[in-house]
Amino acid sequence: MVETSPSGMTARLSHSNFQQQRIQMSDEHEIPVKVVDRRWWARGADSDPGSGERTSLKPTYVEELERQVAEKDKQVQEYLGKYRQAAQEFESARARMRKEVAKDAERSRREILVSLLEVVDNLDRALDSARRAGTSASDPLLQGVDLVRQQFLAKLDGFGIRRIDPGAEPFDPLLHEAVSAVPAADPSQDGRIVGVVRPGYRIGEEVLRPALVAVAKATQVSRTP
Questions:
Q1: Cα-Cα-Cα-Cα dihedral of 113, 115, 116, 118, to 10°?
Q2: Which tens digits make up the pLDDT trace of 197-220?
Q3: Who's near 63: CB < 8 A, 6+ residues apart?
Q4: Going by DSSP bridges, is the β-strand pair 200-203/206-209 parallel, antiparallel, or unpaired?
């Protein structure tokens, strides 16, 4: 059995009291430690909702991606606008080109048809000259020329071309072209066609060539009182 001396016990008690006093003093003078939570998902929960400030919960790279997407979308809209404008201009140019082509085709068609009408005019002149010269209607050459003329007129009729060969009818500036005026003693004949210099032709409502005509003009008879 180990005996403890009174001096040893006194030393142990003194050490124990010293430790207790030290612990008590450290509790009284403990320095508070401030802990800052740096977790981004926790910062929004601790914020004051009444402060009017909102902390973004999105990471920086997500915001950057959204910014890039918005910028690309803006560029796409600009490209679409330019494409629509170019497409509209192209359609307008194509429509103008179609109109020009149609005009050129119509002009060429009229020129061809008018040139064919001159052939009929020459056949008419040949027949008139032969008749004025006293050529018999049974003459084979005269009959041949007349047959060619009839066939030519039939071909023109097949294309919808009609002959304008007016008689004693009122002058119509849409169908006729006056080349001479013939005095008429009868006032009722004023403005009427009295002769055809060259027949005209029309296709549908379109006049290819007006008929050249002579028009009667009533003479003024002076009366003495």
A1: 130
A2: 999 999 988 899 999 999 999 876
A3: 56
A4: antiparallel
Calculate the CA 136 to chain-centre distance: 65
Nearest partner of 152 among 199, 106, 120, judged by Cα: 120
**All structural domains of the chain with their residue ranges:** 162-225
Regarding beta strands 176-184 and 211-218, do their DSSP bridges make them parallel or antiparallel, or are they unpaired? parallel
Tokens representing residue 182 in the block: 């013939």
Model-level pTM? 0.54
Crossing angle of helices 140-158/60-132, nearest 10°? 160
Instruction: Indicate if the pLDDT at residue 59 is higher than 50.
Output: yes
Identify the CATH class of 162-225. Answer: mainly beta
3-state helix, strand, coil in the chain (%, to 5): 55, 15, 25
Asked if residues 113 and 203 have their Cβ atoms less than 8 Å apart, the reply is yes
Are 162 and 202 in contact by the 8 Å Cβ rule? The answer is yes
